[in-house]
Amino acid sequence: MSAQIAIAGMTKAFNKGGVNEVLALNGLTLNIDEGDFITIIGSNGAGKSTFLNALAGCFPLDSGTISMDGEDVTGWAEHRRAAKIGRVFQDPLLGTCAGATIEQNLALAKKRGMRRGLGLGVKSKDRVFFSEKLAMLGLGLEERLKTATGLLSGGQRQALTMLMATMVRPRLLLLDEHTAALDPKTAQMILELTERLVVEQRLTTLMVTHNMQQAISMGNRLLMFHRGTVVMDIRGEEKKALTVEELLQRFTELRGEEGLSDRMLLC
Ligand SMILES: Nc1ncnc2c1ncn2[C@@H]1O[C@H](COP(=O)(O)OP(=O)(O)OP(=O)(O)O)[C@@H](O)[C@H]1O
Ligand SMILES: [Mg+2]
Q: What pTM does this model have?
């Protein structure tokens, strides 16, 4: 079976030629299979977010290629790729439009990938659909369709963003530390929602996390990033058997005298 997403030699440097030049992605090569739920770990600055941004088409690559569903998308602009990609960021404020109501945000999400304009009109049959989707979250948001999104808590907004990112089935879902800004209980709620949406729909998903236990227990495949490339790629039974201690050991070997990042979480 050919990979759903094939990444070959992906390279990206920032501030090229300047004193602050950083090689954020260094010839990264990776095949992602249909339905892969991949957790990604790596120390600060390892290139995890840059990798997700590169897949989303936020900037042109210096070299390398990306193909999705057998089609070369390397030259595709961000808006064109957005038809295939759902994203959730660390900051709950980024995924939704604060001034628009819950139903208006959902209406925008429903139009992802369509050519028509981004009007904020909501049809009554959509309202029923949105209510059903929102009820799934168990947060009572189905009673608040006309509430401005800016009035919601961070966790509520992040749950809404998850719903928006998956409302039109994405070919690829990108989650970049999407629970890191939330309190532990809310983070747990969002993680359970993630499991539900991703596993039930078999969405091809990349989830960046600093929580190693999460990286081990969620998904079918784990990648460790270091200096812009993948240094560990573990799946299936081998992944399930991994321990936090082993991952820590690997981090320590990679980082040498730099020591462990203070953002590395053990549980
Ligand atoms: N737009 C940019 N301009 C300049 N440098 C950048 C830019 N984006 C990322 N970098 C640099 O590229 C490197 C990789 O950054 P990236 O954000 O991908 O790391 P990360 O693995 O996501 O780290 P973290 O765990 O801290 O989120 C870093 O050195 C970062 O400073
Ligand atoms: Mg990052």
A: 0.93
